[in-house]
Design brief:
3-stranded antiparallel β-sheet, Bacillus phage protein, globular, 18% strand
């Protein structure tokens, strides 16, 4: 699972723009959604697998949605910068026993994609 999360983080770092396919992969990786069994393209909330049809948050386009991917216990300090047209994010800067800090970046200057990358890296070590 950790390798899958790290691979997905790399895809977020290399993405040129928001991507709904990446959003779906992030939704499933977060553990909050599952793929609809027998219903391609549909998501179900993890706790309610019998109810399908949920749209996933726009993690790669929305800063708020991307921030929800960051584990709650790792939101103590977050640094975001877009210096030199590259978005860079650091989460869990004052790390404790849970590891960190975790870094994400996106060369196309997308803050949400950089947040997704950092959050997925953090989830990989949880």
């Amino acid at each position: 699972m950790a390798d899958d999360l790290l691979s997905l983080a790399k895809r977020c770092e290399k993405a040129a723009e928001p991507d709904r396919h990446l959003d779906r992969l992030c939704a499933v990786a977060s553990g909050e959604y599952i793929e609809g069994r027998g219903r391609p393209g549909m998501l179900a909330k993890a706790g309610e697998p019998h109810i399908f049809g949920f749209g996933c948050p726009a993690y790669t386009a929305s800063i708020d949605a991307a921030m929800s991917l960051i584990p709650e216990e790792m939101r103590d300090e977050i640094e975001i910068t877009t210096l030199y047209r590259a978005a860079r994010v650091t989460i869990n800067m004052n790390h404790g026993t849970d590891g960190g800090p975790f870094y994400g970046s996106n060369e196309c200057n997308s803050i949400p994609l950089a947040i997704c990358a950092a959050a997925l890296k953090a989830r990989a070590v949880r």
